[in-house]
Amino acid sequence: MKKLILSATLLLSVATFAQKDELKVLKKIYAKDEISEKDLEAYKAASDALQNLASEESDKVYAKFYKVMYPTVVLASKGTKATPQDQLSVYSLDFIKDYSAVINETIAFEKKSGKKIYTDELLEEMKEFKQSMTSIAMTLNGAKKYKEAAPFFYNVYLFDPIHEGKSLQNAAILSVQGEDYKVAIKYYEELVASDYINNGMVYYAFNKATGLEEEIASIEDRAKFISLSLYEKPRDLNVSDSKPETLRILALLYRQNSDFEKAKETFAKARLLAPNDEEIKKGEFELYYNLGISGLSEEEKLVAEINASRADKNKFDALMAKRKEMFIKIIPDFEKAYSIDPTNESTKSILKMAYVATGQADKVKTLQ
Hints:
By secondary structure, the chain is mostly helical. The chain contains 18 helices and three strands. Strands 2-1-3 form a three-stranded antiparallel beta sheet, covered by helices on one side. A hairpin with a 5-residue loop joins strand 1 and strand 2 (213-216).
């Protein structure tokens, strides 16, 4: 039994030494300014091996770190020969998520362990990476490539959701401008649920040099600029003030995508927040009115068939019953439209006809 224990201990010791060697290789190559093809092969081999060898918490953390960072090492190996497409390939959605997560995990581990190996470098990398993505997004937006710019703003948000809620809002707005409506629904849904739209603040102040009011990144920056006499007249804006409008746009997107139930629910939420907003009322009215109209698509045909079937009582009765059922189905939509805008004459006219056709003539008197 002792021999077995000794063998297990020996194997563990060999594995420990092996994983330390892999870490040394990875750390050395990662730190290089110029990376060769041979370095890339060695990095990949060491990273793959370390995934199975890592047993201690620290080794597992760095094993994951080096694995996720591999695309950046590949990009670095291309040096000045890297094409814009090479650079863009690094900014994939999956990489952004993994990159952000592994950086935060590594920084958290180093803070806990008290050994700052990469923390300072990673904090600087995060800053530069975010600035790089923002720059690409702004450039594409400036070139009116809204559909292409939107995912870059979205990636900035994913990379730093605590501080970059505005980038999610930009992504949502630009996806609509780029007519990428299904993606726009995804972004607007996330925006409505985000901490930014529910609790965020936007900080403004007037630039003394230009006399124009400008948005400032943080309350700390604004205080600094004011103390330097560069800005004045500070003003704060609750981002939640824009939530009714955000919900209105999401409801319109649902309507365009024929998701009418979600459109109804979303308009209702918007109305609760801003019951007197005319644009929201108009959008909600049009939703219900148009749904009602679409339900009357067979009306003209039915009336023609009814008039032509007066000599055939059975057919006439069946057609009249079908017309009555059609009106029963559309009444709720027109009643809702009427409750939103009781001044619309077309709505009142259709409701009167529907009430009479369904044997509810007494309800005609309730219409103003």
